[in-house]
Amino acid sequence: MSRPPAPLLDAILVAAALLDVWVHADTSEPLRLASALLAACALVMRRRLPRVTFLLTLPAVLLSDAVFAALAALYTLASLTRDRALLVVCAAVFTLGNLVALPSPGFDFSAPSIFIALGYTAATAAAPVFLGQLVQARRDLSSRLAEISRAREYERQLTAQTVLARERTTLAREMHDVVAHQVSLIAVRAGALQVGSRDDDARHAAATIRQLSVQTLEELRHMVSVLRTSGGSPVELIPQPSLGDLQRLIDDSGIETELQISLPGSVPPPVQRAIYRTVQEALTNVRKHAPGARATVLIRHENTTVRVMVTNGPPTRAALSLPGANYGLVGLRQRAGLLGGTVRYGPTENGGFELSLELPVTGRR
Length: 365
Prior knowledge:
Elements: H1 6-24, H2 30-42, H3 50-63, H4 68-80, H5 84-99, H6 112-196, H7 200-228, H8 246-253, E1 257-262, H9 269-289, E2 295-302, E3 305-312, H10 327-338, E4 342-347, E5 353-360
Parallel strand pairs: 1-2
Antiparallel strand pairs: 2-3, 3-5, 4-5
């Protein structure tokens, strides 16, 4: 259960102190009444000035029986200070002040009853001191538990980062030892085919394969560097593709492709990368599943939306059986979703295939 707000709690304490004044103070004795009212009103500043508040309540203890305000001030002082010697002195002052009845003090230490009254008054003063110290200890314990929880959360984060760094290192090693090695073999074989073949088309295809293999190796090296230096010094990344690289992508694809772009103004870099990757994935699928087919890439701007449509006709020769896990289209959907767009794809009526991308463009320069 949550504690009541501090102003409300202060108002309750002041009201209780005023009720104590109403019960014990007498209007015929203005000095006693004024001291009791001063003590009750002083509780308003008990949190900001606990020592001053306790001192302001002492006249009421010496002159009247309205001691609730002094007990409340003593409790507040005990809950906020760590000076136990001061608390002992304050409790002793309250005890002695409550036994004295100014302006005519009268108590006899020879009477046994005075010791009973002294013990009762000392216990009354000790109660708010112990309660305040208990509240302070509970507050310190809660703070310490919160620090321990934060430390454990930070430790869990460090452990997760360590595991992630280890996995990235393993992935980088696998990419370097397996993928990069195989791509290197492809580049070497393509270079040998380019030199040894007498067919111009075969030499051109081999040159394209070799160029793409070298480019893939460069990208793999940068990716391996990024993975291996995870959490360390920043690594210079390769330039990200843009709309200016689309024509080269189409020329290197080996597919007869018509490119139509109508984009007034500039397009944000994330949108440009999404368009590039969409066209790249679409052309890759054409090579794999529709060899010999012609493709059309249409990119246009409509209101606040960029639309990309890549359409290809039916294959003109049998498709090769190549491994695939459909991760490319899934990745396109995820990339488009992060940018607030959508990706749709499916077969066309003439036996071809169409891939479309729609992305919002809110700002143009």
